[in-house]
Design brief:
101 residues; mainly beta; six-stranded antiparallel β-barrel; 2 helices; 6 strands
């Protein structure tokens, strides 16, 4: 990781301490791994012409803790289990993905 990203480690950690919820992640049948994530329910999914075509749930992880991939199963603190479908963004610090409904 380069020096520019290290400047943002502390603020990123602070945000996750404040807003993240506990969860577990399971990959390829391996046992659940305790993790923390930020869950955004009801994120607008935009169509080709800017119209809202649906609502999805996004889950964000600190990349240094977990780098999600398609098919990972995330079990949220409220007991909901969701499967990772799309990796939406990866800025080197935080990975945001769309999970199934």
């Amino acid at each position: 990781m380069n020096a520019v990203h290290r400047q943002f480690d502390a603020p990123t950690d602070d945000l996750f301490v404040e807003f993240a919820d506990p969860c577990t992640v399971t990959r390829d049948g391996a046992g659940p791994i305790p993790m923390r994530c930020i869950v955004d329910d009801g994120v607008a999914q935009m169509g080709e012409y800017g119209q809202i075509i649906g609502r999805v749930t996004h889950v964000s992880f600190v990349k240094a803790e977990w780098c999600p991939k398609r098919g990972d199963v995330v079990t949220l603190a409220d007991g909901r289990s969701k499967s990772v479908e799309i990796i939406d963004s990866d800025d080197g610090l935080v990975v945001e993905c769309t999970v199934n409904a």
